[in-house]
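Researcher: Structure prediction, please.
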Amino acid sequence: MAGAVEGFRLERVIQAVQQRYGSNAVAAARDWNDALTVFQGETEQKKLKDINEYFNRKLRFETDWKVRGQEDYWATPIEALIKGSGDCEDYAIAKYFSLKFSGVPVSKLRITYVKARIGGADSNVTQAHMVLTYYSTPDAEPLVLDNLVSEIRPSSRRADLVPIFSFNSEGVWAAGGSTPQPGGGSRLSKWTDLVEKMRDEGFE
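Model: Predicted structure follows.
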């Protein structure tokens, strides 16, 4: 059995989220912690598969307007799990932190803003979308973890997605760029707000 999840001190999180969100948050925190305890003992490829499936199964897609009454709200994983729903960035954020907590270096993970071609790669109709991308090495072709397409595929098999930029806690990358701009997600106000909310939820 794997040990405690690094960065996820369960009792501290439970106390914080119960005070912040109420009793429903406790069950969400325990369930997520139990899953992460299993995931952290897996190989990296198995973690990708299982965490992708976990959130694609746990969350149903709903717009921020419907769930939060706001146009663009970035939910923490706990907030998304309490509601059982979220939009594209909520899936990507939840998968990012789950992989981080289960031991995958954040240097291999990027939350990626894309334009998704609706109807396929040849469509001229696009909409803003977010996915999580995984790089086994810095110059590797990334794998795409998405809520729209459940199968994890290399980016070359996702011609329907046009990357705009990507980021993690260490840097921001322009589409096609190999050198990150310094400052990481801290340059994005919504990311800064999200990280602060997670600290308030008891995460390290």
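Model: The chain has one domain: 10-200.
Researcher: Thanks, that helps.
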